[in-house]
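Q: What structure does this chain adopt?
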Amino acid sequence: MDIEIDLDRCCGAGTCVLRAPEVFDQDDRDGTVVVLAEHPADDLAESVARAAEDCPASAIRVARRPAPGGVVA
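A:
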């Protein structure tokens, strides 16, 4: 999975950190999201998807990467 952040939209609510602390953190200066793992392990997919869904600014986009052979994992 790939994670993309629109920092212009991020409002620093911290919901992403609560949903997936292994993947997201907040910048100490302004509270905006910091991605700790741009390509997190598959076992974190559910929590990352929930973080994106619950983001009040819709600043997080998650895309699944195709597995070898073109199958989306």
